[in-house]
Write a structure and sequence with these properties.
mainly alpha, disordered N terminus, disordered C terminus, sodium, cell membrane, sodium:phosphate symporter activity, Sodium-dependent phosphate transport protein 2C isoform X3, membrane
Length: about 600
Amino acid sequence: MPNSLAGGQFPNPTLDAIDLEDRNPRNAGTSSSIPGLEEGSTDPWAFPQLKNTGQLKEVSMASRLRKVVIGFLKLCGLLGSLYFFICSLDILSSAFQLLGSKMAGDIFKDNVVLSNPVAGLVIGVLVTVLVQSSSTSSSIVVSMVASKLLTVQVSVPIIMGVNVGTSITSTLVSMAQSGDRDEFQRAFSGSAVHGIFNWLTVLVLLPLECATAALERLSELALGAASLQPGGQAPDILKALTQPFTHLIIQLDSSVITGSATSNNTNSSLIKQWCGVREETPQGSNEECSIFNPCTENSTASPEESKVPCNHLFVGTGLTDLAVGFILLAGSLLVLCTCLVLIVKLLNSVLQGRIAQAVRTVINADFPFPFGWLSGYLAILVGAGLTFLLQSSSVFTAAIVPLMGVGVINLERAYPLFLGSNIGTTTTALLAALASPADMMLFAVQVALIHFFFNLAGILLWYLVPVLRLPIPLAKRFGDLTAQYRWVAIVYLLFTFLLLPLAAFGLSLAGGSVLAAVGGPLVGLVLLIILVNILQRHRPSWLPHCLRSWAWLPLWLHSLEPWDRLVTGCCPCRACKSNSSMASKVANCYENPEIIASQQL
């Protein structure tokens, strides 16, 4: 390419003159490739700088005692905030169940729509988002398969959608750290890596399952090779700690959701009113009947009188499920955000100096050479074990995200922890399936095995070979983008978990041919754009001259700057503000065709 334009009217501008970041592929991966990272600033993906604790010096006994007391109070505050944070997640799940459980049951009723694999996938996503519980969604699927309303083949895409929908909780938690740019960048990338892994696994396994029914056949083989015996319930360690508080707020009857899906019960309230039955004393008992307390023939209590009412906050209120759901949603979100802010502040206060260095070293340490590759697999086992003990993958992933935000856990170590969490929640479902009634046990175990093999196949695809760990770089780039334009996180949340599944579900109602006619070209266009972008970055000489850049398109089609001005103009709050000083400078320069033409490919 010539060093100047035709006629020599435009000299070749240097990077110093126009203050651009180096776009040379040789420099990819350096700090200059991070959006918004100017000279002199720190890399947000590196651990935050440790505060200088200074040299050891003599302190009085009173000062030492004060430090010990303050440290103990901080620890108590951290544990208390974590406890109420977990309780608020439980109540948030109850709020979503109150708001969307009947809708979820109605969605599952349409068996004609569920026969379409894509429709089954998006229904699994929507239902899990509505009820905020993968266990509840899985139990609905098990009940419908056991009731012959669904076949196992139809249930496989729904299970995949359930696995995708459960990652919304960590995404919601990461939004609370949007006040600090670097923390939000790390936290949101941690929540995104979980969703990206689930979507990539679905994109590979869903067509494979439609063509070969591999997961269904594999679960049948495992079911036939095992001699099943009813087992006990999985340990509910976390619920044993949180239920004494959450049951004072609300108690729900989850069988109503399953009944709504199987057409057994559609009009009952989801709020539990009765929690037990009083034990009746037999008539004529010598212990209770005497001269002063004679037994009468009409002493038997009625069925209503023998019931024991629940003791939660909404017993006997005239409020509908929808009204109670909105009240719990507002209250739980307020408590959730407050506890999350307190946790982040306390972690930043506690994890300083040598303590932070020790914690980071232990969590992110690798085995010595040549066994360093085993560290990630150990993290997978740790994530699976902790999820099994907590009995909730949402709680585990939501607790990892703030730790990533404050820089305690890096993305490379959090990724196998998330994968282990996916495995841990399937083992919990497997134990719960073994404890189900005899007429439902085979179907429950097969659905649990399909869920397990799906996540195991995802690990084999996207973790076994280090080069194929694509969710990590994709999540980093997405974290860079959302830190620069924070409103992109809200758009991602709405489109990924609500608007796109709703659009696919609406097209599936019109029939599979309509869904293929509309969705097929759109998917092909997206794949073509991704391919052109990859070639623009790595092999631009392979492309025609007009496709070596997108400068010929209107600005709003290849830059987020116009959209950013629109969003920030409508939303003046600090959370919506973008870090666009460097981005606008780069965008304006590279939108100039003369400068584009002057740069070497």
